[in-house]
């Protein structure tokens, strides 16, 4: 099985996984201990075999990265970016119980799952040609008689589009609508801070929370994420059984995840890695153009959209698809050798060569 998985990992272009990160040595010594982060890391817990210290260090580090004073931040390590989206929406609705939820038609499916679980029908705003939200349409759809919980995206799942978060913030303020704004930055949260002239997406704007993934650009070996909000949104619900504050969305949490995330935050040269990923995406775009394969890329993204190829190519390269389009995400493990083989496969299909 291990050999088969290694082979498949070498032909994966459609999903944002960084397989080149190495943190196994950092977490292996803990595998014979049940490290369980039970409860809010900004408090105590009767179950003290935890990694709360590393978890708080992660929140502190990311708060500074996302332009929020660490003393004004609260958050925790989640099971995924999806859980972070759920926590953001739930905190928004906790603050404004009668709010309407707004999101783009390109929002991640976890947003719609969360709304379904909470028995809400979101107001779905159409997207522009580049897949970012139509901010002006959102402004017109606001109901000034009801608060708004708005989920925006910094790096849409399929095309890496970045919603015009600054404009949405202005439109909501101008409309004088009570609001909570959550940002899904699963992949791009660890890309945009390291790019020149990237659009603002974080706490430099009047947003309330951000969700990022730990198994994408950071390359943790299992699904995980980080949720960060302004400290004023931290719930306080003490649970006697665990001797902790029940501020997280679920109960037991993977205590190895903070160890892996913290190790990679300390050891990865993210500005260099991000720069290389963007360069490779530009190279792929040029190569696709050279063979006449329809493609495009949003600025500040390492996602390249391309016309949907034959099914055998989708299967071989594990491409993500949506309608007539597929995409390649140039993660750190994607190099020139892989791209050359992939483009050669596309050219064979285009030229009608037998497989």
Textual characterization of the structure:
Helices cover about 35% and strands about 15% of the residues. The protein is of the alpha/beta class and about 350 residues long. It folds into 2 domains: about 40-265, Aspartate Aminotransferase, domain 2, CATH 3.40.640; about 270-350, Aspartate Aminotransferase, domain 1 (Alpha-Beta Complex). It has a 7-stranded mixed beta sheet, with helices on both faces. Helix 4 (about 80-95) packs across helix 5 (about 110-115). The chain is globular. The relative contact order is 0.18.
List keywords for this structure.
seven-stranded mixed sheet; 35% helix; four-stranded antiparallel sheet; 13 strands; alpha/beta
Helices and strands in order, then pairings?
Layout: H1 2-9, H2 24-27, H3 52-65, E1 73-78, H4 81-95, E2 100-104, H5 109-117, E3 123-125, H6 135-141, E4 148-153, H7 165-175, E5 179-184, E6 209-213, E7 225-230, E8 238-239, E9 244-245, H8 256-267, H9 270-290, E10 295-297, E11 303-307, H10 311-317, E12 320-322, E13 325-329, H11 336-351
Parallel strand pairs: 2-3, 2-4, 4-5, 5-6
Antiparallel strand pairs: 1-7, 6-7, 8-9, 10-11, 11-13, 12-13
Helix pairs in contact: 3-8, 4-5, 6-7
CATH architecture of the largest domain: 3-Layer(aba) Sandwich
What percentage of residues falls in helices of 4 or more residues?
Answer: 25-40%
Using the coordinates shown, work out and report the CATH topology of the largest domain. Answer: Aspartate Aminotransferase, domain 2
The helix/strand series, from N terminus to C terminus, equals: HHHEHEHEHEHEEEEEHHEEHEEH
CATH superfamily of the largest domain: Type I PLP-dependent aspartate aminotransferase-like (Major domain)
Name the structural class: alpha/beta
Largest sheet: 7 strands, mixed
Give the class-level CATH name of the largest domain.
Answer: Alpha Beta
Distance between the termini: 26 Å
Largest beta sheet: strand ordering? 1-7-6-5-4-2-3
